[in-house]
Design brief:
It contains 9 helices and 3 strands. The chain has about 220 residues and is mostly helical. The C terminus is likely disordered.
Length: about 220
Amino acid sequence: MAKKVEAPVATESTLKDKYLSLVYGGDGTFLDWARAGKLHSILNTDEIAWLLCESRETGAMRKGAVAGELRLAALRGDVKATLSEFNLWGIKPKPAGPAQEGQLYCYIHRDNARQYFHRIGLGIPEGCPLWCWLYAKPASEANKLRRDQLDKTDYQKECLQVWQINPTLPITGAEGITYHADLMAWQQAGRYEPGTFVKWAREIAPDGVKGKRGRRKKSAPA
């Protein structure tokens, strides 16, 4: 009688690797998936810290400091994030003692992270893992994208966010959107002339905003 061959039991490690391979479309490491432009649009602060440090195995103190600063930025409102509740996720009891203190998890969308890094003046080299995640592009497309087009898209998104709160804010003038506190970092960077920001804002300004220029009406026939 032939001996029955037992099917191999999948270990926790092989299941984890298989799942991640299916989710990201291939084998690799966290940084490999980042460079391939395959990471999800929303990451938590620990994952963003890995991208900033360009290593998942970097020193715990270094990565911890970066993740901690990102969490503080989220709590201060410097970067838009979704916050978890304390003691909600990932809290395990210590081997011999009380449960660990609650940990706050912050989840940040790449668009909000990109705006935050721009506001604080963080220069991000094209092609690095963080750049790939922020722009949803593989490293192979680094230096192929026009910087002004990327900046225009980001600037217009920030303008629309401001107009959602104050839909009648004018475009120009000291009280205009181009001089709004949330957008002043663009002016201060000195990369573009002030008129460029006015032009970008006019393209997407809501109807009724002072300074928005529409198409000229055709003259009625005599």
